[in-house]
Amino acid sequence: MPVKRAALLPLVLALLTGFLTPLKAEPHALDQRDPRANEQKADALVEKLQQLRARVDASSRKVSLEEAIELGLRNNPDLVAAFRTIQDYEWQLIAAQRQWYPTLELSNGSPFVGLNANTYIQRFYNSQQEQVISTLGSAPNAPSQVKQFTTTAVLQPGATASWSFIDPTRQPNINAASEALRQQKLLFDVSARNLILQIQTAYYTLQSTRQLITDFQQIYDINRRQMEVIRARYGIQLATVLDLAQTESQLFNQLNQLVSFTQSYITEAAQLARQLGLPDDSLVLPAEKAKLYNSWMVPLPETIARATRLREEILASLAAAESAQWSGIAQMNQYLPVFQVVGTGSLRLESGVINGVPGRDTTFAQSGLKTWNGAVGIGFNWTLFDGGIDAAQAQSEYAQAEQKRSVAESNRLQTVQQIRSSYGDYEASQVAVDSARMAYQAALTAQEAARARFDIGVGDITTIVQTIEQWGTSSQQLSQATLAYNKAVAELYRFSATWPGDSGALVREQEQRLR
After folding, report:
1. Cβ-based neighbour number of residue 204 at 10 Å
2. Is the dihedral of CA 414, 420, 426, 432 positive or negative?
3. Fewest CB atoms within 10 Å of the CB: 95, 238, 280, 350?
4. Each residue of 198-212: pLDDT tens digit?
5. What global pTM score does this model have?
6. Of 245, 238, 309, residue with least CA distance to 456
7. Paired strand residues for 339
């Protein structure tokens, strides 16, 4: 059975009376503490933040964006490491090219210099004995054996010179090393471009954070003065507890934002210093205020065409594919003969007792012996069958070549995606910057008008709080829009393989300096 509305009215009134009566009776917490304690704490915290930022500013080096890029290219250890890799592959190419040179090898007998001792013993039996005795002219009572010994000082040098004038593996190996070197040079440019983008991004981000600190410090100061006004009005009962609490809450929210921005400011300054390769006791700060850098005037189709033609990641993968292809050819050519011009020579010098008879005077057995020989001609080596090992290794190299070509295609697709994304960000950020500027100016005017109306008694504190919050929000939006614009332009330079400003000449200069 439905309950009548008239029967519910007394119950609702009773409930409301029960809830509202304790609120009227209980004194507010703001009335039971030092009225200015929180503001004084906030002021002390803000002063600490200002001192912290002052120390950072005092110990930091102020640089322009161009100077930051130059410092990074000169000092960053990652770029130096990338160049040392180039030198590694340069020497590998030189080693492959030197396979064209003839070789000279010194060899020796056993031993090269030392003593040579041997004993010769021959025993005679029956008819063999009579034949030997007759030959030697010995008496019938000659011994049944002959002993001789040799003890000499020996020197046995030798040499072999050869030149492989036909080697089917040599030129493919040189080509493979050349392509591998080209890959590393391209990857060095990739490292340089990545470093420039990182420096630009860090620089823009630091500018943005510093601009937010400036804006929110100004907002805090305005709100702090407004707090004094509200406090005075509250003392003469022209403002409510709600007015006071709203203003105080907003004050501490702004303080928390200042703390967060200051933390980011210090972290970003340290990050930029690391990218520039500066000493441990150095920080870097932008010498310029946040602004819009550069612009991109190349249409999207031309940007994509340039990027897919010049991006080092694509070219490096193709170079790696060529290197693997030539390595496979070299492996297959192992089955072909290698023709050489070969020259050998050796010398044996002996001095001492040669063919001496034990127990007899060796004076007349002392002698010297010199033996030498030499040869020159054409030879060849030909591995007819190795069980298919070289063929299998060649197929492995060919598979790697195909894999690198697939990577190059993947890099091409990624390049197109990066250009389209950055180009879209660039066009959108242009609109965002204009919109954020208008929103910022409108919010600034709105909070000034709201505070003016409140001062003459026709406004309320809620409107002031809302307009100041809108001012802070619009400040962040303008900062983010400016940052997004600059990052989009920097990415378009990076992803289209275009050097910003004089950075290309600086990279080449750094290469020459490291050699």
Report:
1. 23
2. negative
3. 280
4. 999 999 999 999 999
5. 0.82
6. 238
7. 166, 380
